Amino acid sequence: MTNSAFLDDLFQVLEQRRQADPEASYTARLHAKGKAKIAQKVGEEAVETVIEAMRGDNEKLAEESADLLYHLLVLWQACDLAPSEVYDVLAARFKPDTTEAEGTS
Q1: Which of 30, 26, 6 lies closest to 83, judged by CA?
Q2: What is the CATH number of the domain that holds 41?
Q3: 102 vs 8, which has greater pLDDT?
């Protein structure tokens, strides 16, 4: 499974873990620390992702990208933002006759 269904499934798993005991779940621990801490983690993971991209190590880039996506999903949870809302924005920006999304660089 390599499409958006995977992210949707992961989001549901993270929703379950959000309700878990913070002693037993990293996801629950992040939520217990609040949105600001989660946002900080997204920033840290974004920087680490960029560093690995510049180093040219695709294995490390994939690992850091996975960390970034995980923390981004947790941030969406903290903000009550469903993945489908992000998909809708991306779909609205996508123009099949161009190679670049509108509004992005």
Answers
A1: 6
A2: 1.10.287.1080
A3: 8
